[in-house]
Predict the structure.
Amino acid sequence: MTQMKLYDITRELMTAPVYPGDPSPRMTRLSDMALGDAYTASQITLCLHNGTHADAPCHFFPDADDVTAIPLEQAIGECTVAAFDGVLLGDEAERLMRRVGAVERLLFKGTATLSQSAAFVLADAGVRVIGVEGNSVAPVAETAVVHRALLSEHILLLENLDLSAVEEGRYFLFAAPLKIAGADGAPVRAVLVER
């Protein structure tokens, strides 16, 4: 039997960094066995972009697909983790793609954000999933333009990953977002499998 090692690359939702201006998630007890209730139940209030999450095209395009339109086969499959810190420019993206080869799913370990030119290079190279450890795939000054460049190509964006325990290399990724009709994003329980 082949041994598998699993890496949970999901940040804990309540303590994950929050994008500036977004509300922090809150959990409220509705009933509590410690207070004599028959069972414990809680309610959660959150921004769909809190914690480890996926962005849907309707996050930046009105009347575009919501998160339920993201195909499962896009969110699950072979994946490459590459380390990069800083803003990835187009020429650096070209060098990176020559180094890692043809990949459909690419996760960036480190502080990587993508410039518009890097977004075009990765889209042209056939990358279908891009993941970053930061709150956004784009630097603040280019947030809208980079998201639009990627989401218009139906590239799945995974943000707020935790790749701290993962080395560069090839893995198998499970990163299906919650199925929420009309949602511009959704929490993801992201897992890498090393075989």
